[in-house]
Design a protein that fits this description.
By secondary structure, this protein is of the alpha/beta class. The chain has 17 helices and 21 strands. The strands form 5 sheets. Strands 1, 2, 3, 4, 5, 6, 17 and 18 form an 8-stranded mixed sheet that branches. It has a 5-stranded parallel sheet with strand order 7-16-8-9-12, with helices on one face. Strands 13-14-15 form a 3-stranded antiparallel sheet, with no helix packed on it. The longest helix has 22 residues. Bound molecules: ligand NA7. The site of ligand NA7 has 23 residues, from helix 5.
Length: about 550
């Protein structure tokens, strides 16, 4: 804060990634003036920071795109079925330029604190760079996987070689050629980067704590069948996506596993394996795969068979086979040559379940059994997901003087994943309690942003100044969240969906498990029933539904 007068706007947005950019566009069209505060020196969010080798989106490009403007869809053509990080970053830059959004973004500006003032009914937001912001509304568009998790391993400071985090990969200057490299972590970031690091490094040692299910991406041109569906009737395709369970328009399966013969199940599985599409394999095999442990085990066995076939050394193959969680309960990965990489002579796999890392030393990594000397350590250890980036603005102080971190001490509470009781005019895009990470983010982001901006415009038009979820509505949403999570298998795995990846973090399934289409209907019904569950106030009085 320079000590100058706060910048006055209708809406302050934090983040200029996929969500922040769309918000700026929508807010401007709705006649609300806004500023986006962005820590990086350019737009892109996730796609700005995650520059590690092999970084790609694992939702197909035809689905991972903005859909709000058919002209934009015409103006941009993706080069592949799955876009690389640089291509997605170019796309987001293209969108920022096309809609002239950069003039409303303050780059290299980290948000420090945010405080609600009851008297003026405004948020005051202090920043690391430039004046504070005073705004009527405050929207966190900070993403779900943007706050890297600390390594939680002793001795990191002692290491004399190079250290990289996949989520904070340097923009240039990384050269792994001829070096002994360690990768810690086998989530999506590890699984995408390991094959490319293995090609460059003299030797690669992968430190795996929990094996993950990974499927071949079969990247290349966008598949003709999916592209045909989109191009056949673009509006209908997009609408089906919005009403679907995942934000990708696949039909709902109604046949359960035990109604199919072994041969029929295998045929469906092989088709899904060949499709190279997470949403396909997660939703199109049989109806009980995501909700019943037996229906799920059939898929697990079929995938383990594939791993066994891909990896030549049976012991290594066994270590790579997930055996502790249902398929889909932990985020599965899409890979290019992942399992085959373990057939290379310069790659070694260390099973941390047998020999946990004791410490990082000056020269490498010490497990209970040995010291492995390396020149470079890559941490692909993940994120403080869903709540980490929101809580990083600390404190966010609401009406009661309480901070959001305190209110969330036992886990994130929200109404619709969009708002929090006690925090008037505060909104989250893809927050905990929304479908977010269980969906195609592009579709969820547009739905959330549309809903929020439409509400702000309606408030203004109706003469209200504040909007706040009631405690009762929030408790009802928590119950509904719990009910939905009991139907799926996500609760049966220790993952970043449940907070289990961060020591000491409150446990609970954070994303809404009820599906994108049903969630949209609920959000729309809240509006059609007169803002059910919200209290609105303004100079002409209050309304509570
Ligand atoms: P993930 O999926 O959280 O993966 C992190 C990996 O790092 C996972 O294998 C972890 O093992 C491992 N890990 C984390 N901490 C440690 C320590 N201290 N020691 C050893 N191993 C550790 O993060 P990603 O960045 O790969 O992917 C995040 C999402 O981005 C992904 O799901 C997609 O949605 C896109 P664990 O499983 O916890 O035993």
């Amino acid at each position: 804060d320079t000590g100058g007068k706060p910048q006055q706007v209708d809406v302050a947005v934090v983040g200029a990634g996929f969500a922040g950019l769309y918000l700026l566009h929508r807010l401007r069209k709705a006649g609300l003036n806004a500023v986006a505060l962005e820590e990086a020196d350019d737009v892109g969010g996730t796609w700005y920071w995650n520059r590690y080798p092999g970084a790609r989106c694992d939702i197909q490009t035809i689905d991972y795109s903005y859909t709000f403007d058919p002209e934009l869809e015409k103006a941009w053509t993706w080069s592949e079925k799955y876009a690389t990080q640089p291509e997605i970053l170019r796309y987001l830059g293209f969108v920022a330029d096309r809609y002239d959004l950069r003039r409303d973004i303050r780059f290299k500006t980290k948000v420090k604190e945010a405080t609600w003032d009851d008297a003026s009914e405004r948020w005051l937001i202090t920043t690391s760079n430039g004046p504070a912001v005073s705004s009527r509304h405050y929207i966190m568009a900070t993403g779900c996987l943007s706050a890297p998790k600390p390594p939680e391993i002793e001795g990191v400071g002692d290491f004399r070689g190079e250290i990289y985090f996949t989520g904070r990969w340097p923009h240039e200057g990384v050269n792994l050629a001829g070096k002994r490299v360690a990768v810690i972590g086998t989530g999506s970031s590890g699984i995408q980067s390991i094959p490319l690091i293995a090609e460059q490094a003299a030797h690669l040692t992968v430190f795996q704590r929990t094996p993950n299910f990974a499927l071949p991406a079969h990247n290349g041109p966008a598949p003709a069948d999916r592209l045909g569906l989109l191009q056949g009737d673009r509006a209908a395709y997009r609408e089906q996506a919005r009403q679907s369970m995942t934000g990708v328009p696949y039909p709902q399966q109604t046949v359960v596993s035990w109604q199919l013969s072994d041969a029929e199940r295998r045929e469906r599985f092989e088709r899904a394996w060949a499709a190279g599409d997470l949403v396909h394999i997660l939703t199109q095999l049989w109806a009980d795969q995501g909700v019943d442990v037996d229906g799920n085990k059939i898929v697990q066995d079929l995938i383990r068979e594939k791993i066994r076939a891909a990896v030549k050394d049976p012991e290594t193959a066994a270590v790579l086979m997930p055996d502790d969680h249902p398929f889909g309960a932990k985020r599965p990965c899409l890979d290019t040559n992942y399992y085959a990489t373990y057939n290379r002579p310069n790659v070694t796999l260390v099973n941390l379940r047998q020999e946990p890392i004791k410490a990082i030393t000056a020269s490498g990594i010490a497990t209970g059994k040995r010291n492995i000397d390396v020149d470079v350590i890559v941490f692909a250890t993940g994120f403080d997901a869903m709540t980490g980036a929101i809580k990083a603005v600390h404190p966010i102080t609401g009406r009661s003087g309480k901070s959001l971190s305190d209110v969330w001490a036992h886990g994130p509470e929200s109404y619709l994943g969009l708002t929090v009781a006690g925090f008037p005019n505060f909104f989250m895009i893809t927050g905990p309690g929304s479908p977010s990470v269980l969906s195609n983010m592009a579709v969820s982001i547009e739905q959330h942003a549309d809903w929020v901006v439409d509400r702000l415009a309606a408030l203004r038009d109706q003469g209200f100044t504040t909007m706040e979820a009631t405690d009762k509505a929030q408790a009802g949403w928590a119950q509904h969240m719990a009910d939905c999570s009991m139907v799926t298998l996500h609760r049966l795995a220790n993952t970043w969906y449940t907070g289990a990846n961060v020591p000491g973090k409150a446990q609970g399934v954070m994303p809404y498990c009820g599906g994108v289409g049903p969630y949209r209907s609920i959000c729309d019904e809240v509006v059609s029933r007169g803002m059910l569950g919200f209290k609105l106030t303004g100079p002409n009085g209050a309304a509570q539904c």
